[in-house]
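Researcher: I'd like a structural prediction for the single chain below. Treat it as a standalone chain; there are no partners to consider.
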Amino acid sequence: MSPSSKLREFVNEPMRDKHVSSVAGIAHECSDTLVGLGFDKAYILFGQFLIYRKERSAFIEWLVATTGIGISNAIAAYDCLSEWSEKFL
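Model: Treating it as a single chain, here is the predicted structure.
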């Protein structure tokens, strides 16, 4: 699934119990790392996004440092969570 279709699918419905890999930018390897750290659900990663007060650079830096994800994927994940929060909060 392309990142843009993954983004559209994620932001167009409530988060519920979606797996963390459903967040745009979070691919298989990054997903495995996050699950190993206890971030198995998208809403748990979203909680971390809120802990960082939706601050773009802080969340992206944390995600890159924690998972080794590429910066472009970290930005995609941030944008996905940010768009979802604008729509549902």
